[in-house]
DNA sequence: CAGATGAGCCTTACGTCGTAAGGCAAATCG
DNA sequence: CGATTTGCCTTACGACGTAAGGCTCATCTG
């Protein structure tokens, strides 16, 4: 560690940076006021001079990832200037996804927050602009935002995602059930080899992510054209 | 309350039923070992004779909702016997949705569980059977399951859902931001009237749910037919 | 019938968490 | 120079989940 006068003074930014590092390394469960303070070389109550409390800390983490996502997505769209709406949105969402892969805790945190982080509006504005530019009415664009759901933020939010070691147990258990569940058994047998690349959660691979994205894009394109001829 | 010999003896089922009632009424945060025990007229530690702990209690709740969903969905599909795969899946998912509307805490609980509830396999088997019957290969059916995500369980899993009172504050805040976010402002203005029926979370209305469902169904139908002619 | 067995519930206690209240020392300002 | 503010610490409280063990019965055994 670098020599320091007395001690680097605490600050909201320094606390958030350390918190992010802690959570990246050890997961959300490790993020405790006392633990974060310890990592900062300070006592727990000192954090309250820079953060309004635990909830405020989580809000700060969320704010930070959203800023990271927005920056990455805006950059991606800038790089693709001139492309059609599909490829621009695609690049946006895939850029967001790379941020999520850096912060595996982010999906759960984002979807557990009781309040909407203000920064999210700016992000959605960019998506909306792309959609409107692509010829979508606000009505369909609105529905598109809902349809994208968490895909817009770069993660598929699989409902169930057993982690690492438990996968084996789950598979064994599934093998037992397979005879009572013929279709599931057959599907797993047919797709087993494809079980590579589990990036974010169970089977939430890049491939599935992009497949769903294209499904939605295709559908939206049709909805747009249909409403154009109808009305 | 009915007269009872001494006291109704505790049991796993009785504990789970009381826990469900408690959570339905006061939300997940109210579900505490001590509180649940109190509702059962018992001390906290007594629960441990029937449940392996807090996690086991949550597992039990999950097991219960999944059973409820499976029953509702199977019933719905039985009622629609003879229909095509789209309407049968639709009815399945909408039946699951009515269960979710009864238990607003279920989406968050389901997606926060660290392990896959075994009961879910039986539910997916039913969906798979419908897809296969509809002419889908296991490959596309697999992707379809991923694409449905939480829709299959009856909820859209909106990323952000401010509750009741906070909506007003959020709208006010959004009005302030609107000038910096022209598209968002315009969209909200255009869609404001449509902000009825917030059933599960923010804007996760029945309409949005079904719109997304049809988007995916359309896309899947194309994917199926395309792969049939290709290969 | 007496005594042993064990199920069902309770009491007490520990370690963890978030955080309220207030103290003390160094930096800043009049 | 003394007064005030700032930044951090100490202590303490009331939640939480749960480990360990005690008490009170119904039931079974001989």
From TrEMBL, chains A, B:
Keyword Lipoprotein among UniProt keywords: no
Family annotation (InterPro entries): Homeodomain-like_sf, HTH-type_TetR-like_transc_reg, HTH_TetR, Repressor_TetR_C, Tet_transcr_reg_TetR-rel_C_sf
Keywords linked to the UniProt accession: DNA-binding, Transcription, Transcription regulation
DNA-binding residues: 32-51
A Pfam family that the UniProt record links to this protein: TetR_C_1
Protein name (Swiss-Prot/TrEMBL): TetR family transcriptional regulator
Ranges of residues in domain HTH tetR-type: 9-69
